[in-house]
Design brief:
The structure holds two protein chains of two kinds. Chain A is mainly beta. Chain A has strands at residues 4-7, 10-13, 19-25, 31-37, 44-51, 54-57, 64-66, 76-78, 87-94, 100-101, 105-109. In chain A, strands 2, 4, 5, 6, 9, 10 and 11 form a seven-stranded mixed sheet that branches. A four-stranded antiparallel sheet of chain A has the order 1-3-8-7, with no helix packed on it. Chain A is globular. Chain B has strands spanning 4-7, 10-14, 19-25, 32-38, 45-51, 56-59, 62-67, 72-77, 86-93, 101-103, 107-112. The chains are: A mainly beta, B mainly beta.
Chain lengths: 110, 113
């Protein structure tokens, strides 16, 4: 089934660890996005990509980085996690169409 | 850039009553206005959208109206049911011809049985 998949669903890690949140979509969409959201709260755009080898920072300053080597894959990396990074991270994709969201990764940094 | 204001931040209604959520946007060039529903613990999902060449759109109990002159749009839910309880986000396209979105801060709707 064509969808957008995020792994892991939940992640608890210690301060200072490097982590990568995975996002893959099987819908052939060219545009992909990462949002940070505290549960039920405002959606903050942190990164986006309009195609392979294209990445831009969003409205919210983030210490994370992203890459877009393949159309379907848009991973987000935190080089050194901190408690302030505790949040939910939502990946989304679109073509010339409405935005489709993944189920999110809920990250807790202890 | 685009700025989207959403009101109210919380809304409680009795089951069967109507609910209205309002949004204003700043960029007159924005031309695409979707609404997303996010249930507790789930992903945001598109429920209805409208483009700037249309003033109103309806889908069963849900309707959206757009006033381009005043730069505001509203979500109307009639005959509310407990399963309508969720956080609703409005959004506006960041620039004309673009689908990149600027979101409002969300409205938590509670439907009381």
């Amino acid at each position: 089934e064509a969808d957008i998949y995020q792994t892991p669903r939940y992640l608890v890690i210690g301060t200072g660890k490097k982590i990568t949140l995975e996002c893959s979509q099987t819908m052939g969409h060219d545009k992909m996005y990462w949002y940070q959201q505290d549960p039920g709260m405002e959606l903050h755009l942190i990164h986006y990509s309009y195609g392979v080898n294209s990445t831009e920072k969003g409205d919210l300053s983030s210490e994370s980085t992203v890459s877009r080597i393949r159309t379907e894959h848009f991973p987000l990396t935190l080089e050194s996690a901190r408690p302030s990074h505790t949040s939910q991270y939502l990946c989304a994709s679109q073509s010339n169409s409405p935005l489709h969201f993944g189920n999110g990764t809920r990250l807790t940094v202890t | 850039g685009e700025n989207v204001e959403q009101h109210p931040s919380t809304l409680s209604v009795q089951e069967g009553d109507s609910a209205v959520i309002k949004c204003t946007y700043s960029d007159s060039a924005s031309n695409y206005f979707p609404w997303y529903k996010q249930e507790l613990g789930k992903r945001p999902q598109l429920i209805i959208d409208i483009r700037s060449n249309v003033g109103e759109k309806k889908d069963q109990r849900i309707a959206v109206t757009l006033n381009k002159t005043a730069k505001h749009f509203s979500l109307h839910i009639t005959e509310t049911q407990p399963e309508d309880s969720a956080v609703y986000f409005c959004a506006a396209s960041t620039r004309a011809g673009s689908y990149q979105l600027t979101f409002g801060k969300g409205t938590k709707l509670s439907v009381i049985p």
